[in-house]
Specification:
The protein is an alpha/beta fold. The protein has five domains: 49 residues, no CATH class; 71 residues, Signal recognition particle alu RNA binding heterodimer, srp9/1 (2-Layer Sandwich); 172 residues, Rossmann fold (3-Layer(aba) Sandwich), CATH 3.40.50; 71 residues, Helicase, Ruva Protein, domain 3 (Orthogonal Bundle); 209 residues, Methane Monooxygenase Hydroxylase, Chain G, domain 1, CATH 1.20.58.760. It is built from 21 helices and 18 strands. The strands form five sheets. It has a six-stranded mixed β-sheet with strand order 6-8-9-10-7-11, sandwiched between helices. A five-stranded mixed β-sheet has the order 1-4-3-2-5, covered by helices on one side. Helix 13 crosses helix 14, helix 15 runs antiparallel to helix 16 and helix 16 crosses helix 18. It is elongated.
Length: 642
Amino acid sequence: MPDAPRRPSGQFGSFTGRWVFFILLIIAAGIMLSWGKQIIGDAEKEITYSEFVKYVEDKKIASAKIGERAITGRFVDGEPKSSYRLTAPSRESQGEIIRLLQGTRVDYSFDQPNRFWEAVIPYLILLPLSAFVVYLLFRRLMDSGSGGALSFGKARAKLVTKETVKVTFEDVAGIEEAKEEVAEIVEFLKEPERFRRLGARVPRGVLLVGSPGSGKTLLAKAIAGEAGVPFFSISGSDFVEMFVGVGASRVRDLFLQAKQHAPSIIFLDEIDAVGRRRGAGLGGGHDEREQTLNAILVEMDGFDTSDQVIIIASTNRPDVLDPALLRPGRFDRRVVVDLPDMKGREAILKVHARKLKMSENVDLAEVARMTVSFSGADLENLLNEAALLAVMRRHDVVEHEDVEEAREKVLWGKERRSRKMEDDDRRITAFHEAGHAVVAWFTPHVDNPHKITIMPRGMSFLGATMKLPEKDKYIFTRGQIQGEIDVLYGGRAAEETFCSDVSVGAADDIKRATDLIRRMVTRWGMSDRLGPLTYTDEEENVFLGYEITRQHVNSENTNREIDAEIRRISSEAFSRARNLISEYAEDVKRLAALLLDKEVLNKEQITAILGEPPDKNGVLGGSPSLPADEQGDAPEAGAADG
């Protein structure tokens, strides 16, 4: 986009130079008027009161002018200097001086100062100077091209021209369905006549909804890159300022710029910053955000199909958006940019791997299996961490071991080799992790562990049992969830069986197991005693993954039954884990001993002790199931530092 017209720098510099000269001239004139006599006072002789009395008595004073601050006058001929000055005599001294002058018949007069100029001159100096400073401040900060803090009404959108948009659909992987949904937007921007000929109306607004890092911004840039049109990008928070009305003004300016560069795309990132449902706040309804939202609604209504301006917005909080934004004619199309599946993760890894020197032993398909629930941004960060590790290890290329270590660093933190644990602590941690591994190995419907470690990581992990899923899961059955709960209890069961006392290392395992059991009973209807009912009004954010509100809607008797059912399921799961630990006690001991010796075990070492894992692909007929986005990821067990 061509920059807004500006005054040439030379012309502005010349204009400023004239102002500076004018201000300096005023200052100099004021100084001359108020203190001119002091400046030319080199021709005057400064004398004291006693000297003045002596000069008068010796008849060497020709004249005197009596003022408030000084007495000045001229000497008689023959003195080295023709003038004198007596500074600030007191009022009593002035009376004596007048009588002395009268007695010696010296001509004298009184100096009446012009008080008007004394009062005006300081203002003549300060006012033009202040005006000049204020002028320069506003001139610089309100210049449309300056981007300063006081460029109130100008939109702060970042413009990427069609010449500089380098992102295309080839750079976007793992979200094929989302790309298909926005493909018609690209065709409209390229060939609008095809749509007009049939009377088809392309959506004016497209709302990209998905988890953080899933590729919403990248997809919007790819649309602009494919269509070859300018791309205006701005965050929702950029519209909100401390000055009322600024956000609405910036909205109008942004849409005006987009129309001037049509066909074009406006991308509003994190629109929930200004698009929240009106009337839901505590500070009153008519605030700055509401004015900004109203301006967006008005501008979107004012669009015509001939404008060829498409508005794309992104959010991970669609539940808080104002309904007026989502009605037909505004954001008509809602495109879900979901986390990639295994095939999508592999495609994303291939895109980012093009920029790196990768070893041939790096199996991106296996890396995709290891990174369940990773977003596109997470995968990019994973490969970057692997590259950094390869550099620090002085590898010529990125090896598979670098990628594995990068994954563990991202998930649990960096290895803390300097942290020395006592022998008793290492023994408890080893049996804890061996318990997780054995229960996971012999429990149906649970992924097998592929790595066990008792090396401390990050802030709180003393050890971890890492599982490698064979495939993505979109439905979790009751049997699978119960299996995961058994694995979580495996660490505590092993501590109870082989150690003199239990530790706080199982605190996180117990918390996660309790949360799963509570959801089974209150949300997923998996309790035979309480039936397929929902006993909670929790609102879970799909894309952020946490509960927003919690309301207690049950009677006291029902809550007691819920608590009893949670305790029953928990007790049964712990009994199953403890029975497995007892049944395979020798395997647990050997696994713990090898862990104490090696600290890290891979799948081959685990298999050498536990044998080949049993077939876990049995039929789970009749077991209730739930969507994967409700359950979340299959938890990986580990000993936490309490």
